[in-house]
From TrEMBL, chains A, B, C, D:
It comes from the Bacteria. Pfam families: Aminotran_3 (PF00202). Belongs to the class-III pyridoxal-phosphate-dependent aminotransferase family. It is an enzyme of class 2 (transferase). The keyword Coiled coil does not apply. NCBIfam families: dat, ectoine_ectB, PRK09264.1. CDD domains: OAT_like (cd00610). The lineage of its organism: Bacteria, Bacillati, Actinomycetota, Actinomycetes, Micrococcales. This is Diaminobutyrate--2-oxoglutarate transaminase.
Length: 423, 423, 423, 423
């Protein structure tokens, strides 16, 4: 690799930086599923801003809306004041996303990022129930501020808190034990046993597909069982759809497939459609006991994000084309992964994971997965790992990625896997 | 008031919304210090996005940079990958802000908003010292996620946490007791008394001027005393400059006047210069013990914000014109407030507060302050209250507000105060 | 029942009183396994002070030692000063209990009761490891002060804390799922999975037989597995032997049978042999990093308790007679319980539980178990229930109970069970 | 010093032992204010079991009652069952202590030691108010279990917890700033300022005279002010009278002098009159919302302690002789201390502290105070230090100490002080 990290600015930055270590080049331009580096080299993007760019980089129709917003001197920063663009965002969201799915949610703007949405969700659940504890799942990721971090699994990230993270009890995610035990055996027993020592939880917070956790997709029946368990025990169900919502698994919400209706839903990442900071916390109307301003923040009304978000709803969610295409593309990735796994099956166990266009190929070791992504980078493909040992090669391409580019990227990946496993 | 709130979108939104209650009109356009409502009415903005728009709404030269960024399909969402625009932001920040002030900080991008910057600061301070407790100050405001909320004073906001907020001990801010007691008498004694029961703090977190707390400006000697106390006791000093930095009080950093060098500094709000979500946590190089990725987040690399931020440094911080002008404008506001206070002095005690262009006029009651801001709104002026009883009329106009518009706004305010006090 | 509760003193006492509700008579005298009420009625004691009176009430040889201590004006209250009787207690404990079992522990006197011993154990484990979290087990009981309560399961008792009880994660005790899952499947997985979200524990605290939890006896191989798991992961193993130690299950320590050596052991209840407040926390010498006085308390040196405790070691632990007799008596209780269970097996599932002379008969419902103990009381037998629904009739008779008295008590119990199940 | 520590038993004991380090001899007998060591040497006891032996060691009339209790095989260990001796204790306590003082409290038996009483008090206050936080005072000492430790000041002891101690905020005790500030200035302001950041407390816990904290006696008007403040703000007032109750300051309760009526009172130490483990938590009847068994423990019904406690009420609290004598003896100690202080006033500032027979002489340094107590020990006097730097020579002699023995002890002390200050 000949790319040289830009020395000056690097030395100004804290050691906490991360992605620039995997991909030590400086990018300048981006379009669709392609990023361009300073030296002009093009990279296919199988990461899409960790699921923030479901419609690709700088989508031309969204771009037009955003530029017009700036050109016309429309309100860019509006706190949570009423603006026309904010109203339009809300109405479009209601008309094209909530109503067609029979969902009745109030929307709150908890701050610009996903972790704000999670913090607001947890605060509300605690306020509504008067309980403090929350059940989360093994290998969950919900954010880096203290509330969200306490329900996140990763031990490095938890360790960064510098204080004991409490008020959360991790429960086994779907298939954590390879289905040798009945679903929710442990959680259900703890909830019904008055001597279990489990503090009765305010809420359960869950991702339908754990992205950072290794592209672990919960089965629909597991999600339904979880929803039933919550109903039975008077516990609020929070679905964190920050990474898996906005069409990543096919439908707009990742929980649609299971036919459940969470009490609270968090959205962010792709909600603006253009990689701009925006987050929503959806709540059932009967839970809306917030006092005015009880949760607030400066960046809850970023005009261009409202504009592009509303436009994205219109472009992609007026019909079911994107959903179908996502499922088809996802099936293609799955089949390619299955082929790769089958080819190595005699010597290595590769596990194919995921749902929709959130896909993972689990390698025997994190070291091998790291070799795959390094090699892919050299070949012009940006792809990341996840999972507790970084052992899962994670695919989160733009949903709009052209079939050919997807295929070519998978070709690179296939070769990289072959090399890593035969090294 | 004849303005009608946009019914449809309002009913979709959670009761937690706040500013749209004070100003129940829908805004569409904005430029400089003027916001335009749907009905075409213009409002002078004395709030500036709670200090996010120090250079006014949609500054034309910054706008050009932002639009070009979009037009050229430069990287909009870049996580924390290297991008050319990110490097330029860092280098310009170093060249125009840090170096000229003799400051040696590493920069981390903790997430898009101020609360993320505070969370990162607290996490780092705890990690570095191995201690958990933090000292904050009465009437502090640092954010709404659990870590930042625990060092925030407001009881309504704290109550929203739904769990006991711990690990923080509030100490009296400057002048909390009208200077009848020596500075830091209590804190110093608790720190030196091995039987005091104070958990030895990792850090002290302080605003040099408390915005939400009522525009309480700490004296320079108090800040120096605090810095000395921290040094003596091996406690890290965090200055939260999210609202008061970026020139609000004159110099770029609000702590420059006191001549202190905090260990950690948080910046956000006006750092992009255009109201776009961006935040920084600055740390002394010797504190940079973060592991890669130990604190992260999706929206740490918003390209247009880097572009406008770098341009704003060039436009406003290549010389000391803005600083001088801010101090002059601030002095003008102060003199006007002094006149108002003097005129009512026989019947009401009005207190003139603040520094630079963070100014407050404290009325006898929160009700009166609310009457002032309501009346001002009717007359086309957006101005907010703060303080524990919302008793302080708070001025945070754009630093770039034209003298005439500032004067006219103050005229409105003066009349509104007169009305409120003679009602 | 004609017994009248002593009205005057009852009205002076808080509603928190408990045993006097089950047995509303006033007792005056006691000897061996017999308690005498104010009206002269005699009751057989199958509860033995919740396991505090393993050698019966007022054992004549211990009594002599105690009275002599008082008569001779020996030191009664000695804080933790050296006294001759304290030295003798320690030496006898070492010579007759620790040394013969090849155990090398340092002894600390953490305060007068079991909960003090648990608090000291948890504090030490946290200090030694630098970690905060502790793993406890479902249906555990360790005490009522905040540290001990946080590792206790019962929800009523936990609720009494008035603050969220944190830093503890409950894991399934042996047989919690009827052995459909491998032992420690969940705990082991959480410990090895860096993304599990389990805060790495300082210690595991366990009772070998859960008394309050329903006389749940862990299998020896489960205890060995737990000890191995702790060793593998560098976690301290605390055995709370407050109720099950001092010969209750046969050997002096309840963990001897499993052949494990805990890092820390708590003892109390029967350690004085005479129902007098005394508690010990045993710790492996290499863990003895306490600073002088870092944990202390007023009642750590109760002279008469040292005297009777040392004498009890000599009387009961100079040979293996008591151990053999306890096992034989336990086997007799078990056979009687098995007969009762078999007789009702066609209509009710009764479960026979326990080890040594800690025995339980689990009835289908807590109501039925309550009927059994009420009826037994009417017939002159004191016996309690335990378990999460109070569904287990719990036998903790003195180890010294005469065979005939044990048989007669069981006859009463058998009839009471028959009545309750045919009602 | 030629005394040899008993080697064998010492090596068996944890390093946490404390008093045996100051007084490295082994004691065997005790009577009144005299302890006898193994070598026959007699020591005058100015420590009285840290205030546990207000009526001296082994008082002959109490001893008779205790021995009779054992001789007659009365119930020694009775959990919280009704026993005749328990009823008599309650009735005598009511008749001789509560009623004559117009106090209407319910009594709970929270466990055998003071820390149990404090834990029960805190739990109840939190349960009653639904709040978690508690205000304690600088240099407070309330016990070593986690709940009590969190409201204790000493940093060594707090550090032993191994987890962050939270839910408590230390406030300045009376005279903490030499009366340069109004009483409760800080606490009152924090309580009334909605933006102070103080979590509204469930309770304030206070010692009227801080024993461990350095014999700091609060003024009666300060205590009245505190009680008023609690009433005004709906906060429960807990007086921890474990060390200062039972006549130590003159009246039975140390708060009588101030004329206040706490909501909750803790008692232990001298309550049995004979150094036997017993503790009470008194609560106003309207606070008695405990569920049966919500707080419990094994050693809540130690028969001999009830017997001697009831007898002690009769012996010492049927009239006001003891109270008068304590005040007189206290005045004598004070006058002697004043003489000593006056004699050294030109070169050293000695501070005379305390109330009743809780008296302290503060030396310039902890080292000097340590020299005094070491020298006193050599001369046959047992006296301890306290205070944050162990700089206060603390006198807690038995209230029954003969005048001559008190005088002789003070003579020893006086010489020891002279030596220490002229060394």
């Amino acid at each position: 690799m000949t790319a040289i990290a830009p020395i000056n600015s690097t030395s100004l930055e804290s050691e906490v930086r991360s992605y620039s270590r995997s991909w030590p080049v400086s990018f300048t331009h981006a379009k669709g599923s392609t990023l361009v580096a300073e030296d002009g080299r093009e990279y296919t993007d199988f990461f899409a801003g960790a699921g923030t760019l479901n419609y690709g980089h700088n989508h031309p129709e969204l771009k037009k809306v955003v530029i017009d917003h700036f050109l016309e001197d429309r309100v860019v920063h509006g706190l949570d004041m009423f603006t026309d663009v904010r109203s339009r965002f809300l109405e479009t969201f209601n008309d094209l996303i909530l109503s067609p799915r029979g969902l009745d949610y109030k929307v709150s703007f908890p701050g610009p990022g996903g972790t704000n949405a999670v913090e607001a969700a947890l605060k509300l659940a605690r306020k509504v129930t008067g309980r403090e504890s929350v059940v989360n799942f093994t290998n969950a990721f919900h954010g880096m501020t203290l509330g969200a971090l306490s329900v996140t699994g990763n031990s490095l990230k938890r360790g960064g808190a510098g204080i004991p993270l409490v008020h959360a009890t991790p429960m086994p995610f779907d298939d954590y034990f390879g289905q040798v035990v009945p679903d929710f055996m442990y959680l259900e027993r703890l909830l019904t046993d008055g001597g279990s020592g489990l503090n009765k939880p305010a809420a359960v917070i869950v991702e339908t597909v754990q992205g950072e956790g290794g592209i672990n997709a919960a089965r629909a029946e597991w999600l339904r069982g979880l929803a039933d368990l919550c109903t039975t025990h008077g516990i609020l169900l929070i679905v964190d759809d920050i990474q898996m919502g906005c069409g990543r698994t096919g439908g707009f919400f990742s929980f649609e497939e299971a036919g459940i209706t969470p009490d609270i839903v968090t959205l962010s990442k792709s909600i603006s459609g253009y990689g701009m900071p925006l987050a929503l916390t959806l709540l059932k109307p009967e839970l809306d006991i917030w006092e005015p301003g009880e949760h607030n923040g400066t960046f809850r009304g970023f005009g261009p994000a409202f504009a592009s978000g509303a436009k994205a709803f219109e472009l992609f969610w007026s019909d079911d084309e994107l959903e179908k295409s996502t499922i088809a593309k996802g099936a293609y990735v799955e089949s390619r992964f299955n082929q790769i796994a089958a080819r190595h099956a005699d010597r290595h166990e590769l596990i194919v994971k995921g749902r929709g266009l959130a896909r993972g190929l689990q390698l025997p070791t994190g070291e091998q997965a790291g070799q795959v992504t390094s090699r892919a980078f050299e070949e012009g493909l940006l792809v990341e790992t996840s999972g507790p040992s970084d052992e899962v090669v994670k695919l989160l391409p733009a949903l709009t990625i052209p079939d050919e580019q997807l295929r070519d990227g998978l070709d690179i990946l296939e070769k990289a896997v072959d090399e890593a496993l035969t090294a």
